[in-house]
Design a protein that fits this description.
Length: 202
């Protein structure tokens, strides 16, 4: 029993760590440092790289993308190194949760695409590479960042067993479900034909 309790405590610690790091918003930090204004009043009002791009500052958008992907990857790598695979997957989920519902921003966060991709790269780089490739192809064909994210996230639970990562399927389903939830407004706009394309400022 003490061993089990200790293991649960360790997992809870990494879950908390993942959430707190995930809650740090790259977009808000970059916007403040580069004097881009309040992201909540720009474009979609989102704090992610796609909305940062709507400021017209491609460098800021790139830095935001790397930051948000990097925090997900770092959380996974640290948790795995110090506590193993279970801790890595739990920390991955809570980091994603933290990005979507950050404690530092009143639980009003981003949609998690960059963090999602960073998590996959750190957990198993082939899954991250495939997810990024799917996103890139769909984005290039349609210019809809949201649709690219939805297709990529929806495909990964199916593709992971084919890539040899059956141990990640449950996490992939949970992340995809949360990502779809966060993109519900985008889904409605895609259906209505009113969704903004990559590079537009509205």
């Amino acid at each position: 029993m003490p061993v089990i309790e200790n293991s649960m405590a360790i997992l809870a610690l990494w879950a908390s760590f993942g959430y707190l790091i995930g809650s740090v918003s790259g977009g808000m930090i970059v916007a403040r440092l580069m004097n881009l204004g309040n992201l909540r009043e720009i474009g979609s009002g989102n704090i992610g790289a796609t909305n940062v791009l709507r400021t017209g500052n491609k460098k800021a958008a790139a830095v935001t993308l790397v930051f948000d992907a990097g925090k997900g990857a770092v959380v996974v790598l640290l948790a795995r190194a110090f506590a193993g695979e279970d801790a890595a997957q739990i920390a991955a989920f809570t980091a994603f949760l933290g990005h979507c519902f950050p404690v530092w921003l009143g639980f009003k966060g981003g949609k998690g695409v960059a963090t999602y991709l960073g998590i996959l790269w750190a957990l198993a780089w082939p899954t991250g590479a495939v997810a990024c490739l799917i996103w890139l192809v769909v984005a290039l064909l349609t210019r809809f960042s949201s649709l690219a994210a939805l297709v990529s996230a929806g495909a990964m639970p199916v593709l992971m067993p084919l890539l040899g990562y059956t141990n990640m399927v449950t996490l992939a389903v949970l992340l995809a479900a949360l990502l779809y939830w966060r993109h519900w407004g985008n889904i409605q706009r895609l259906r209505a034909g009113t969704e903004s394309k990559i590079g537009t400022k509205s």
